[in-house]
Structures are given as C-alpha cells and as structure tokens.
Amino acid sequence: MNDVPGLAALTSISPRFAHHAEALGRAAWNNPHRRVDETAAVFLGCDLSLGLLDFPLRTHVEMARRLGVPGQVMIDVIVELAPLVGYPLAAQALTSVAFSPSADHGASGQAIDLARRAAVAVRRPGPVPDDALADIVGEYGALVHGE
User: Fold this and answer.
1) Total-model pTM
2) DSSP summary character for residue 146
3) What are the helix and strand counts (H, E) for the chain?
C-alpha cells in the first residue's frame, strides 16, 4: 500500500494519527476473508451511510482504484445503496468522485450484500455481529457511537 491516498496530508497534520490510520487501512484492505472489491464495497457502504462524501469517500475510492477495483464496481455499489442512503446522497457520491462508466465487470452480489450490511451495521450501537465487516464497521461505529 505505497503512496496511500491522503496519507501525506494526514502525516503533515498528525504523524501519530496518520500512522494509526495507515495501520487500520492496511489491515482492512489486506483482510484475507474479503476480496479487494468487497473491501471497497464495505468502505463505500460505511461512507455513504454516514454521509462521509469528502475525504473518506475520495480516499477509499482512490485506494480501490489503485488496487485494481473497476470503477463500474463502485458505481454499482453506490446505485444499489441509493434506496438505503437516499438518492441525493448517492447522486452526490457518483458525481463528486468522477466515475466513468465502463465495460468493466460490475459489482458482485456478494460485494453489494456486504455494502448493504455495512451501511446498516455502522448505524447500530453495539458489537458488529458479522466477522466479515467487523474490522471496518467497528472503526466507523466508534466514530458514530462515541466509543
């Protein structure tokens, strides 16, 4: 995970925070229980569920791109989440990240399912019942629930 998007900016503000953020991100993107497109979907589900369309969404989309996730996968995930997170938010996400539709393969049913489960789980207080989501959703849950 060389040249992590946004890491230099975070490091210039708080090296300690940047170090922890990089370690969490590295663990999440390298989780052996998820494919990289599924990890991208979980991040997108959390970002959209909480309305985090600026730095978090852009960073996660850029990381997914660098790891080879086709833009069409991320478009599909956002479109599928629109009824859950709201169409205005989904539209803003689609336009703010400069996606280009392509002939690349789209999101798998598993990736979309993980994105939906993450979007719902991140808003619920308490432990994350799903091990496939716990590493990422747990961090977002701490943000939401003040843990």
Assistant:
1) 0.81
2) T
3) 8, 0
CA 24 to mean position of chain CA atoms: 13
Task: Provide CB contacts within 8 A for 128, sequence distance 6+.
Answer: 121, 134, 137, 138, 141
120 exposed, middle or buried (CB, 10 Å; 0-12, 13-18, 19+)? middle
pLDDT digits (tens, 9 = 90+) for 73-94: 899 999 999 999 999 999 999 9
* Cα distance between residue 68 and residue 64, in whole Å: 6
The structure tokens 């789980």 sit at: 121
Q: Give the sign of the dihedral formed by CA 131, CA 113, CA 119, CA 57.
A: positive
H or E element at residue 134: helix 131-145
